[in-house]
Amino acid sequence: MTDKKCDIGIAGVGTMGGNLALNMADHGFSVAVYDAVAAKARDLAQGKESGGRILAGDTVQELAAMLHRPRAVLLLVPAGKPVDDAISALIANFDKSDLIIDGGNSHFTDTNRREKLIAQSDMLFMGMGISGGESGARHGPSIMPGGPSHAYERVRKILEASAAHVNGDPCVAYLGAGSAGHYVKMVHNGIEYGLMQLISETYDIMKRGLGMGAGELAEIYSKWNGEELNSYLIEITADIFHYKDEKNPGFVLIDLILDKARQKGTGKWTSWDAMDLEVPTPNVDAAVIMRNLSGCLDERKKASEVLHGPEYRFQGDRVGLIEHLRNACYAGMVMTYAQGFALLKEASRSYEYGLDLETVARIWRGGCIIRAGVLEPIRTAFLRRPNLANLLMDEHFTQEVNARQKSLRTVVATAAELGVPAPGFSASLAYLDAYRSAWLPANLIQAQRDYFGAHTYERKDMPGKFLHTVWRPPAPAPSLVIDRSGKAS
Fold this sequence. Notes:
Layout: E1 8-11, H1 15-26, E2 31-34, H2 38-46, E3 54-57, H3 60-65, E4 72-75, H4 81-93, E5 99-102, H5 108-119, E6 124-131, H6 133-139, E7 142-146, H7 149-162, E8 165-166, E9 169-170, H8 180-209, H9 214-225, H10 232-242, H11 266-276, H12 282-294, H13 297-306, H14 318-351, H15 357-363, H16 375-384, H17 395-418, H18 423-435, H19 442-453, E10 457-459, E11 462-467
Parallel strand pairs: 1-2, 1-4, 2-3, 4-5, 5-6
Antiparallel strand pairs: 6-7, 8-9, 10-11
């Protein structure tokens, strides 16, 4: 190894960077690593798992010297300023035609800006989403690269070998130009928010509504994971309810965790851009809102003392309700994926990414956090109809959602009767009912906007013409007399 130049460099060997370096080394590639804390890189290179295929550099200059030309280096540092700082250091020590890959959770607009900056130095840049957490990075993540296609070809063999595989297919593929990779990863995370919210609502209804304990919940989620809800998120949910607290063996750990969820911003970014592109993503929006609301813990505790809910306690068929929850969860998950893919379709058009949605579904089937059995029929839907506007219009998913519509309505109604918040299920049902409506009351909104702001409106019988109506003659402003008591007359 001392005389051989390395195949790829990794700058930043935290949880993701360190495990990806070991993953690549496992597959026969030599990796040069660097970290601002030099000891971390040296420890990784000297560890038994490195197999002698990892070299550590104490400086960016040493990192550059260890790579064969043209160089390729993967950044795995926190999003924001650390990425800009790392890029500046690399530009100063690398040559023309070298490749920098940002593998963090950067906002796609930052990726666009950095691509232009790096191009000024005649270097190449790729934004690449990576999903799978610590285990995925070590054993095979889902990888979402975007940027110049010829840049991807330089590292394609390394990425394909290191990615998760499903039925022999690597869960990585070139997605498109510019910031396509980071955009797809952002939407992946938005879908993740929506799915997690739905699962948490099933938990809430079964815990508070049916009084079920962790043991029963673990059994139910394990059973669901063996059926059409099969997914990584359902699988780990079952594991969570099985886990006993090490400090207090009489408790399951979940019951000791504070009900205050945090976030890093990717769900919020998804909602923001969906609103900019005018694509409805209510499941993502509801999930972001509920994380924000969970943060108001002190306020919620005070409100619980003065704001009262229904006295109703569920007296019906418990087994039947759990079955409705299973069906409703599947329908809600389909709705969440449908919204995410609709956003990807519009973003591809607006930002000229050239996304192939079948490819996106394919590389999400393994390695990533939102991997699920339902992604195979999603892939098939886009394979049959690449220009499919919405998953709900695919024959398979039309039938699946129609068959579960009653369950979705039952769950929303039951949650309302119990006083248990279910914004994810409610958003799913509202999205379904709005999307299937041939008529919506937006004509009234048009009329209101024209009434107070002269914003014009369109008529059914006069398409393409924007009209304005003086809805009533303006009334003269009333004369008011204010006496000393403050009363008007």
